[in-house]
Amino acid sequence: xxxxxxxxxxKNELNARLNSRRHFLKECTLGLGGIALGSLLNxxxxxxxxxxxxxxxxxxxxxxxxxxxxxxxxxxxxxxxxVGAPSQLELFDYxxxxxxxxxxxxxxxxxxxxxxxxxxxxxxxxxxQAKFSKEGESGNWISNHLPHFKNVIDEVTFLKAxxxxxFNHGPAQLLMFTGSPRFGRPALGSWATYGLGSENxxxxxxxxxxxxxxxxxxxxxxxxxxxxxxxxxxxxxxxxDPVLYLKDPKGVSRNLKKKILNSINSINYxxxxxxxxxxxxxxxxxxxxxxxxxxxxxxVMNIDNEPEYIKKMYGVEPGKESLAxxxxxxxxxxxxxxxxxxxxxxxxxxxxxxxxxxxxxxxxNKCRQMDRPVTALLLDLKQRGLLDETLxxxxxxxxxxxxxxxxxxxxxxxxxxxxxxxxxxxxxWMAGGGIKKGFVHGKTDEIGHTxxxxxxxxxxxxATILHLLxxxxxxxxxxxxxxxxxxxxxxxxxxxxILA
Length: 500
Prior knowledge:
Blueprint: H1 2-18, H2 21-27, H3 29-43, E1 76-83, H4 96-100, E2 132-135, E3 140-143, E4 156-163, H5 169-178, H6 188-196, E5 206-211, E6 234-236, H7 254-275, H8 278-300, H9 308-314, H10 323-335, E7 340-346, H11 362-383, E8 390-395, E9 399-404, E10 419-422, E11 426-432, E12 439-441, E13 443-444, E14 451-453, E15 456-457, H12 458-469, E16 478-480, E17 483-485
Helix pairs in contact: 7-8, 10-11
């Protein structure tokens, strides 16, 4: 018993000594010097006393709308991703020299030391499988596969020399939207809502709409990664209930649901007070958001109440899952203050390995499905005065090769004509606030194989999107595992040549 008492006395004496002013002044002088030196060094820092709104305590309302650190050009983003990578050589990148090389053996220099998804041996060159014309006041080239889009060609800026180092769908999609070809990083939309919050308290800040199927990389493309989970994208369905379990069970009234919600969240608040886990606050916010969404989402996701001329303009198909429906829903959402709307349209992988993947059959069908609604989206945003405050981005995860795909060394048939994956150069476009109109940035060689002017990377695309939202991509960070992370990793530059 005496030993236990002695040990307690020693413990109390040590605690008293360590917490005394004498110990602090005598033993912690180096610490005082470090504090003084740190204050002097900080006084020379350009970033002195600078804090960003998104880095402050947002526990009470993590989706509260915030002003961006820099001057922004747009409030919202609509990103149209064509899953599978459409062929730039049949849409926007006209190459008459490639037509002259049609069916001739591919030069060894184009394939030596290169990695392809399926090409084996020496393939033949494949000329353009479309006719091209110059359209609009800008006189930019466009294929006959997009008869509607030529009417809005003067609204967009084409990026014709985008490149990526990934040549398989999943990793390339992850790189495009999370800045890494591996799982675990936050999506572009998650970064946007983390930095800016949402202007509509009754709707998610980051909404995802899919058509045709699920992207190869799956739900990680709209995941929150290491950001708080409230910033993950909400996948809404275009067919059936927009969100699962949106309706209350029979016999459960709105008032009863509110009482249940209050009871659950009171327990959650007590748990947070004890453990201080920020994910508990996210859980509380998500419960409350789900309750509000039961009223707001059905109204926004209803395209039946749109005027007939609007539905005809988009070519919508009520009750079905389609890109046309999703384009109209995207307009409705940004109109209601949704920060980031991501559309994924599956089915653009044109290897030529059968009719559905043929440039002459499946690809043509995808062009018809895309041409009208995407054109209508730009026109609709413009007529409502929303295009100046919305950024619209279109593209795939990579492009297609200028040669046939000869899977297993055998050239595909004429009806199954197709191209393999190509990361060296592909085309994307942007339109809306802060973007030049009728402009082309970048140029590929005479066969569309490699960018020779204005090459831009996936990171440059990301940096430009963040810039238009009002962020310096190098300073827009989140501390995780002992270091600050950013969307663009350690790369990326704003593509200033395309800014208005």
